[in-house]
Amino acid sequence: MDIRFEKNTILKEKPDFEHLGFGKYFTDHMFVMNYDDHHWHDARIVPYAPITMDPASMVFHYAQETFEGLKAYKTEKNEILLFRPEMNAWRMMNSNQRLCMPLISENDFIEAVEALVRIEKDWIPSKKGTSLYIRPFMFANEAGVGVHASESYQFVIIASPSASYYKNGLEPVKIYVEDEYVRAVIGGTGNIKCGGNYASSIIAQSKAKQLGCDQVLWLDGIERKYVEEVGTMNVMFVIDNIVYTAPLSGSILPGITRDSILHILKDQQVEVKEEKIDIHFLMEAAHDGRLSEAFGCGTAALITPIGELLYKKQNIVINNHQTGHITRLLYDILSSIQWGESEDPYGWTRKVK
Ligand code: PLP
Ligand code: COI
Questions:
Q1: Which of the residues 2, 254, 308, 346 has an alpha carbon 20 to 30 A from that of 235?
Q2: Average per-residue pLDDT in the chain?
């Protein structure tokens, strides 16, 4: 792919890398590519700037939009690593297929990400736990208010130097179990990454906030009984030393972190059950003291211990608000691969040269 580069003549002052937060600062450039007449064209890296769009652009009305999230990590040797970017490329193809949007090949997706990362390498913070969060997204921009697949699209990649999603890193968070609203049903869009899924989840997220919780744990959309995932992460529970996580049944996002953790757990000889988790089974296990750990996992959140669950006014404290043994082990193994501190026996990291 030919990528034209238009250098920004006014470079921004870098933020304080010690106090980044998540997704608040953006680099000097962005990758942009357009789709018209059935093909992608004009791949370019240009100064980061607002996008001008027709008010009738279809994304504003019918939300034909998909996105991805991955990170570039800086190692102690100043190398730059991406983590399983081919999985993001694959997932975006899947998302696009579901929303009748054009595909981008794995090669082009990775080439575009790498080209931007190379240009923005000075924006990658190096402290463990911080990285350059990369956000590829695509939207329909044909002007018209009839409901059909757009004929024009834009694919954009922006990047943001960030710390972990939850401000306290490996500190346990408090999660609200939502039993009124639902996130997804099988056959819907819960297993792809599109903005619409998040738009409909914000109301529950605000409820969680009001109740003093950090995030929402979603139950299945039909019986409101089986635990699915958290708003920004997949979720796992340790009961009697077995790790339970919801199966990829079609209504949860197939997380890349989830998949990586399942590989690591297998190699650590920890028993895993990918099966439907009844919220009552979980509550009972908590009451009996058998629920020893719970954690969420995702690119932005990495591995986030869950210290408390709130379900129908019942508060369950997990492991006395401490980070459990398996949670820490997984954090250590995964984060040391991502930040290049240890060998990568899985071949998951990819050097950006
Ligand atoms: N589930 C949801 C709803 C998410 O937004 C994310 C984040 O991307 C995940 C799970 C975790 O996916 P991944 O590990 O690929 O980042
Ligand atoms: C990610 O982990 O990359 C996500 O996309 C989560 C996000 C919605 C902040």
A1: 346
A2: 96
